[in-house]
Amino acid sequence: MARSPLARLFTRKPAPVVAGDTPQRLTIGERDYALVVRRHASARNIRLRTDPAKGALLITLPGHARLGEAIAFARAQAGWIEASFAKAGAAIAMEPAALIPYRGTQHRIDWDARHGRRVIAADGIIRLGGARDSVEARLTRWLKAEAKRLCAADLADYCARAGAPMPALAISNAARRWGSCSANGTIRINWRLVMAPDAVRRSVVAHEVAHLRHMNHSADFYAWLDTLFEGNRKDADHWLKAHGRGLYLVGSGG
Description:
With 254 residues, this protein is of the alpha+beta class. Helix content is 34%, strand content 26%. It has helices spanning 67-76, 78-88, 135-162, 198-210, 219-228, 233-247, and strands at 2-3, 8-9, 21-28, 31-40, 45-51, 56-62, 99-102, 105-111, 120-122, 125-128, 169-172, 179-181, 187-190. Helix 3 packs across helix 4, helix 4 (198-210) crosses helix 5 (219-228) and helix 4 packs across helix 6. The radius of gyration is 21 Å and the shape is globular.
């Protein structure tokens, strides 16, 4: 997601939080967007982000602000919104004949009702059968299972290198984070990294394993990460910066 560089400031005392999100539709120029407005008591300004994967504009409002102010604010940034969506690229549906990334390589979805229901990936093709209307849901489940399988192997590898016991692993659906390491040691990795090159996914797992020793981003942390990770972490970071947002455009991401 991208965040607008602009924000409208308020000086009035925020009102209490209004629970939940308020979905709307908003047309700017010739394009229609989903508009999700969230009110938050601690917010002191209007904040706007884009979610190209869902074709949505996400706005955080101070509790006292009116919806009309949010809409006017969004309309005033039409150029930035258009540029943000253009930079992200077009959404990719998980449908027969579509190309989707898997472990850094484009794979064509080969669906045929006569194929078995089991998903098989080989030689640039992802093959599956079953009902056509469940292709996306089944491919998403398969990608998440593949992410957990691969990340579990990565985690075992780096914990062995670090001389650390294996922590709990969870596959996340985070909107803006590739990985995290909680205070209790649980490591969470974004399932979309299964679509990235192996070295990129492994760099994120190594990063979180390094946090088991250093819960910060100090010089000691990066020195330890460079000891654990066999590749060039800066190259992996650059790949995520350049291509990471595109992973959110594949399928519905449920």
